[in-house]
Each structure stands twice: as C-alpha cells, then as structure tokens.
Amino acid sequence: MKQTRTAREMLAQIENDFFKGVNLAAASRLRGEERRAYRLAQVERLLTATHGYAPLAMWLSDKFWTADEGRLKMNESNPLMTQEGLQTLTDEERERLLLMQEVAGLCHDLSLHFTFDLKEAFGIRNRLWVSNKRLVEWLSTTAYERIAMHTAYIMRKHAINVYASQHYLPAQDELAELFSREYLELVGRPDNTDIPPRDYVKEIINALLRIERHWQRGRRLKLHSEVVILHDEIYGVLPRQFDKGVLEAAQALHDYMDKEVYGRGSSRELMGRFAEKVREVRAQYLAEGWVTDDSLAFGYLLSHAERCAYGYKCGEDEAL
Q: Which of 292, 277, 281, 164 is nearest to 229 (CA)?
C-alpha cells in the first residue's frame, strides 16, 4: 500500500526540486516590493529552465493546481492544501509554503497563458490592453524577459478573444497569423520561437498598437464602430489607413443591413439579396478586383451579415 507523504515531506521535496540554493527561508520574510522582486526573479528562472518538454514553471504549477484557468486544486487530499496538513507545519514552514504558492501561482498563469492580476504581479494597473502605457513600458524594458514574452503572448491571446467576441475578423486574423518579417517566421508561442525575447515582445506590442491606433483614427473621424469593421472587412486585411471609397462602400452596406438585414433571421433568400447588394456596392465604389466572390473579404461580409440577421451588432465592446 502506497504511503501518503506528510505536508512537511512534500514541502521539503518541492523546495529541493524547485528552490534549491535561492534562500527561500530568508525571502519568505520579505514584504512589499522586495517580495515582489524575489517572486518575479524566481518565476523568470523557472520559465527559462526546462525539464523534458516543459519549463520548470509548469512542473511547479502541477504540484498545486490543474492546467485549468482559475487555479483549481490538483488534488483535494494534498496535505499542503488542506487545513489538517497545514496545522502540522511550523509558522516558518507555512511562510515558506505561502511564498512557494505565490511563485507557483504566477508560474501557472504565465506558463499556461491565462490572464492574471497585473497589480499583484507587477504593481501595475490591472488592464491587460495595449492602451495601458505603464504595462507596455514595463514589458519593453524589464529585465524579466521571459515573463515579458509570456505576458505579451497572453495580451495577444486576450485581444484575439475580445475581437472574436465582437466579430472583428480582420483584427482577429491579423493577430492569430502574426508574422515577423525580420525573422521570417510566425510569432508563435513564447516557448517555441527563435525570436529573441525583446524582439518577440516588440512584434506583439506593435501589432496590438497598429489595431489600437487604427481605431483611434476611426474615433477621430467619428466613424460608427460597425462601419470601421465593414471597411476593414472590405480590405480583407487590417489596413493602415481609411480609404474614402472603401468608407463609402462600408457606409452603404451598413445602411442596407440596418434596414434590410438586422434582426430578420438568416435565410438563403436574405443572404442571396445581401450578396447581390455587395456586388452592387462593389461596382459603384470599388476598383476592379476588389471583393471578388471567392475572396476572403466577400466571406467576411457574408459572415457579418449573417450575424446581423440574428440580431448581433459588431464592435460594441468597450475595448474597441
């Protein structure tokens, strides 16, 4: 019969495997910014070092939590996670365990790419968006380069989810298929790239800023958010400017959908009429070769109209 290890034995094993030689006992007495600096240094080290196929950060996380969002207990009977087990530890041991779990928690969120509390982790306003200037500055200058890479990837993943929820497909695809022209590779996961850390962060931040600044220009022009999305769908990619003719086409489609599509329920007849409207608008406002029937842009517009038919509006999230 397998003997269950005590809380003290498990604590000693984790300390030996993940915190050997980093003076955890002394660090457990630190508070404030000194404690945060120690915590970040350990997370950086654990994200950098690997064992087998994964960073040590992920292995440490597995000692406490599942690979799900929200830090769910890996094992309800783990004596380090039960009141009974904790009562067998001394005050000093519990202090060491608390610091271990703080490090492991950030390791969990960063290595598995879940959003996390920026205020707790970095001392920065908790808004995981590129408009958070202090966050962008921190990611661009910090000595914790692996942490910055993983945080930038989480920002990108979060933005993709926001744009997907608002059906802003050009921006969603721009980020999902982000390509580095300098390094000639897709900007993939931070633990599977040859792009240096600083440049990796820069690629993601610049892509997020391009989208943010595009929307800022749209606001200055007092454009309806749905017209901006239609404009970009007509381009088929995220454009770097607003084109007068494309804006006129977008406005014409927006007006048509408001009157003839919104809330009417999708049907073959309705979608057929909308496709004909797109062709009519194409002929009136766009140059030859734009929004052909077999193009990505045409598909974007049909998908947009179908959502509109079911009563959904695009671009209503405050992030946009």
A: 164
